[in-house]
Amino acid sequence: MTWLSAAVRIGTLLAACASVGWYYGRPLVAVACALAGLVLLWLYQMYRVQQWLREPGKPPPEIYGIWSDLLSQIYQLQKRGREDRARLQSTVDYLEDSFASMRDGVAIVDDHGGLKWFNESAQRLLGLRQSDRGQSLMNLLRNPEFLRYFNRGDYSQPLQYAMGGDSGAWHRVEITRFGDGDRLLFIRDVTAEVRMEKVRKDFVANVSHELRTPLTVISGYLGTFLSDTSRLEPRYIKPLQQMLQQAVRMENLLKDLLLLSRIESEQGLQPHGVVDISALLAELQDELRTAHPGRRVELAVDPHAGHTVCGDYRELYSAVSNLVLNAIKYSAADSTVTVSWHRDGANCVLEVRDQGIGIDRRHLPRLTERFYRVEDSRASSTGGTGLGLAIVKHVAASHGARLEISSELGKGSVFSLVFGPQTQVAATAGKASAAPAG
Ligand code: ADP
Hints:
Elements: H1 3-23, H2 27-53, H3 66-100, E1 105-109, E2 115-118, H4 120-126, H5 137-140, H6 144-152, E3 159-162, E4 170-178, E5 182-189, H7 191-227, H8 234-265, E6 274-276, H9 277-291, E7 296-301, E8 308-310, H10 313-329, E9 336-344, E10 347-353, H11 376-382, H12 388-398, E11 401-408, E12 412-419, E13 424-425
Parallel strand pairs: 7-9
Antiparallel strand pairs: 1-2, 1-5, 3-4, 4-5, 6-8, 8-13, 9-10, 10-12, 11-12
The site of adenosine-5'-diphosphate has 20 residues, from α10 and α12.
């Protein structure tokens, strides 16, 4: 029934009452009685509607007229709302069930750090109890590395950390923000992976170490033979020279492998020293003058950029010299290599720029992989080990810096070590070490 037909009905009723009243000489009294009756009827129906609304889920009462339409519409809306709620609840149950059955730990933390929800795996991995729901995660977990990561708020990279204690367990945590500042934590036990990786690194380090002595003996004898070629049969000279060249190459390879495994084994430990970058560059320039007397290497140190960073002198020296030696190797003998230290916003940048052969863009993402070479033939003619940039990347990571590479084929390359504010040291913070610590 529409409002129009309801109005027509009421109008008809009032007109009928008015005619009867007019017949008896009291039309107004009749209309007033009809209106009063109508109001009483509506009040009664409103009372029934109110009673019905108090008991959700019950079918609407039998009511006459426009009220019946209203009630059935409200009833339909309620029914649809209940169905939607049930559907949502079943989705939430389904998600909770799937999270609960995951082998990875999952936890939801609100914007104040309170634990809202966690699954059984998170309970086991983090040592939580069911009663910890609602408690602050900061009070429940004590691992300083985890807390630092959690509070820093930069979750672009996952965190891998040792649990400490006798267990030797390692966890990896990934955090994602959602909703109103809530955080979703995924925690995985990576102990087995870390152990395997350690076995692999130890193996490489041990093999490299064991091979060093025999190689030193071989290259030593070869060097002795070649020191006086007049006493050698001429047909042996070239093969012996090639043998020495390859032995030296292998020695360099082992040296780089050992350095790489040392840096890797120290990964995660913050280097403690303070390194004076201008002293480091000055020493490097001295060495280059001796090793590459014909090459032009320009130094440009911005006096307004702080000169010191937190780190290990030997490692940083090795990283920068790798970049500069590459720049020399992969550019023409008469071109200039520029090494600069300057400020870029909050960062300090050590930049090595050459005007050499450059690198095609498609190689850039893989350039820092071990033994990755742009072209085998080209690299072998340079005598490189293919480990130089892997070392640079690891040194950068262990110093909280990052390696950026830009290059244009045929024009040259720029390799930059970008040191964030946390790695820079105020000039007065400590005495800078200008020479290797040991
Ligand atoms: P390598 O010992 O072979 O130089 P690196 O790890 O230092 O190994 O470098 C990897 C590869 O990156 C090199 O083989 C070379 O092809 C390329 N490369 C590195 N530096 C430069 C540069 N300054 N200009 C052009 N190519 C470069």
